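User: Structure please.
Assistant: Input sequence and predicted structure:
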Amino acid sequence: MVLVMDYEVTPDEIRIKVGDDDYAVLAYHIEGKRIFLDSTYTPDGHRGHGIGGKLVVAAVDYARTKGYSIVPVCPFTVGYFKKHPEYDEILEKGTI
């Protein structure tokens, strides 16, 4: 199990605070019982520290609490799920 730092969920983003005024962001949208992970962004000074992966794990946590399946859209999330088959059960079938 991966521990995720505190995250915030807005109607279209999952955010992790990475500095005084900086956030790493995973943008998403929901269609029915599916959450589409559209894009990820980590500020330059915070890249390469695993924060993008923490965003994806936060999205998995959020999806589980809501009963959603996940559809990875952006290349980062697709790559993350390919490397982490332990999350296959939450992926929408046939998306990777």
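The beta strands are 8-9, 13-17, 23-31, 34-41, 69-72.
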